[in-house]
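From the methods appendix. Each design record in this collection lists the tokenized structure first, followed by the designed amino acid sequence. Records were kept in a plain field format so they could be parsed without special tools. The example shown here is representative of the layout used throughout.

RECORD:
FOLD TOKENS (111 positions):
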């Protein structure tokens, strides 16, 4: 569940802003990880119930339609704490945390 603060830039061109810079944190519930080992091929593992970290994002809305809707792009980054511990993800390793980056298209309806 992300909680972010959004800075809306260039509000003189559009009331909602043409560019949104967002930053904040995210909390993850990891109990939905259901890997069962019915053979001896997987190493032992344990998982943390919760993990969390920081998130940073950018929304850009270059296309504004006459009916008030907008079309834009988004890009998000996340870097969080360790979700599970196994042979390849030991706590003493340099970067055992979770992360993602995502991007896509945004269509915003008018108010």
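DESIGN:
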């Amino acid at each position: 569940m992300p909680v972010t603060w959004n800075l809306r830039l260039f509000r003189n061109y559009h009331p909602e802003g043409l560019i949104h810079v967002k930053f904040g944190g995210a909390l993850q519930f990891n109990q939905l990880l259901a890997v069962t080992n019915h053979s001896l091929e997987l190493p032992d593992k344990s998982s943390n119930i919760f993990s969390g970290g920081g998130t940073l994002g950018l929304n850009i809305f270059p296309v504004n339609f006459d009916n008030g809707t907008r079309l834009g792009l988004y890009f998000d980054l996340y870097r969080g704490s360790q979700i599970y511990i196994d042979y390849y993800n030991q706590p003493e390793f340099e970067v055992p945390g979770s992360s993602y980056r995502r991007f896509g298209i945004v269509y915003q309806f008018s108010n």
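APPENDIX NOTE: The radius of gyration is 19 Å.
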